[in-house]
Amino acid sequence: QVRLAESGGGSVQAGGSQRLSCAASGATDDNVCMGWFRQTPGKEREEVAAIYTGGAHNPYYADSVKGRFTASHDNAEKVLYLNMNTLQPEDTAMYYCAAAFIGPYDCSSGSWSTSFWGQGTQVTVSS
């Protein structure tokens, strides 16, 4: 069992930046796919970014966040980060951290099957 705990959400003005963190604990592994998803009421959950923690593989980013969001992982601390820049009101959502023991190519597919979820952290961007 892997436990994920997000932090770092809050309110920010449009054009601003914010960093989310996701701390992993439990039966973690150095080779795991970890990612960020977001959801707003009435909409389907959207994958934002995914990163494979074992080795140098290009992260996946949704088109809506490319060039603005950066995912990274601290293997020693077992923390996943999401640096969000140039935030817009449409980025307002509940952001969730997710993980799965899958390989790097599935991880970068944009449609991997998640196994573990965090409780979510709210990000609100005001105009």
Which bin fits the share of residues in helices? Answer: under 10%
- Please count the helical segments: 1
Average pLDDT number = 94
Pattern of helices and strands: EEEEEEEEEHEE
Distance between the termini: 40 Å
Tally of strands: 11
Largest sheet: 7 strands, mixed
Oligomer: single chain
- Structural class of the secondary structure composition? mainly beta
Give the CA-based shape. globular
User: Which regions contain 5 or more consecutive residues with pLDDT less than 50?
Assistant: none
- Report the sheet-strand fraction: over 45%
Taking all Cα atoms into account, the compactness measure Rg is: 14 Å
Characterization of the model:
The protein is mainly beta and about 130 residues long. It is built from one helix and eleven strands. About 5% of the residues lie in helices and about 50% in strands. The model has no long low-confidence stretch (mean pLDDT about 95).
Helix and strand topology:
Blueprint: E1 2-7, E2 10-13, E3 18-26, E4 33-39, E5 46-52, E6 60-61, E7 69-74, E8 79-84, E9 93-100, H1 104-107, E10 116-117, E11 121-126
Parallel strand pairs: 2-11
Antiparallel strand pairs: 1-3, 3-8, 4-5, 4-9, 5-6, 7-8, 9-10, 9-11
